[in-house]
Structure formats: C-alpha cells, structure tokens
User: Fold this.
Amino acid sequence: MLKNLLKISLILLITGTASAQSAADKYVASYKEAAIRTMNQHGVPASIVLGIAIHESASGTSRIAKYLNNHFGLKGKSGPKPIPSAYKGYESVDDCYADFVAFLKKRVNSLFIHHPAGDYKKWATGIQRGGYAASKTWASQVMGIIKKYKLYEYDNGIPESIRPVETIKVTSNETTKQSTTYRVKYGDTLVEIAEKFNTTVKNILLKNSLKTSNLSIGQELQL
Assistant:
C-alpha cells in the first residue's frame, strides 16, 4: 500500500511539473514575437518581458490574464473589464505590454538609457529596486525563469565593449578595402548615424536595401 501511494505521489509530482513547464512553453510560443517587437520599439529585453509575464500571470493562466489581458498585475481603473477587479483591463496583450513599458519608464527610466535590450540581470534587479515588487527574491525568481527557459536567446543586446564597429576586408587582388558596420542602439536615427560616419541617409538605405528609415535595436547596418 505504501509503495503504491509513493508511486501515485511521484506520478502526480511529475505530471504537475510537466504541466507547469508546458504552460510556460506555450506562453513563450504565443507571445515571443510581441515581446521582441516591444524590445525593438522600446529597448526592454524580450527576456524580461516574457520572464516577468510568466512569473506574474502564471504563464498566462491567472484570472486577470484570462479575463483582463493583464499579464503584469498592473493596477488601475482604465480599460474594458469583464470581471470586477482592482487590476487594469486591456483590449489585447499588446496593449498590456505597451502599458508595462510606460510603467517601467516612469519607475526605472535609467535602464532604458544605460542597458537598452541587454543584460536581463541588471534589468531584473533594477526593476525590483524601482519598487515593482515587494518580495526580496522577486528578481532572483524572474532570472531563474529566464535561465530555465533560455529566454535570453530572444534578446539582441550586445555590450558596447564587444560590439563590432569596423572590419577590414581584403579583395582578391590583395588591395585593402575598409567596410564599416554599425549595430543600432537605443535612440539612434539614420540622420545621426549618417552624420557620425560621414555618409548620407540615402546611401545607408541603398546599401542595406531599406525601404524606410525605421530602425530596430541591435540591427546591423553596412556603411
């Protein structure tokens, strides 16, 4: 009897763990593109968006996530509310992600300036220090989720010290030709980049086959 009970308990434990992992995997599959868009537009690492959302919304299965599209536990009275709640309701998860970014800019704007789309550890600890969560272990829990599900793979931030800036190419006739590459940072515009490298916006557009001047953080440009 005791052996059977132990077996049943073990099966239930394994099943519960698999279900939790499956919910997180499903969340990532559903919202990774929205998280990457948020990162490219605003500079918040995709891993941070996904990691916090998984943590705060139980991988999108919490009541406010299901009924209010609120994946971050943001409180307020605005938005549609199919259920009575002290939490904000949103038309879509994209709206929730955008409001989360606005919330962070009010609390921890320095992270957007110094660590755009990179170093999720500094973002997690910085957000905790900004008063987002009362728990002292909150940042560690979020970082644990990011590591467990390898959410950092969706980030494109590269430390300034190791960003490629210039490369030297040698042609077949052994003449040297310099080719400059530049990785877009938060706040960059084509006009500023063109001035910095003594070129024109038109040349950058042509060299990179770009149809618009819209840029994404981490995007590599040939100059």
About this structure: The CA atoms of residues 97 and 191 lie 29 Å apart.
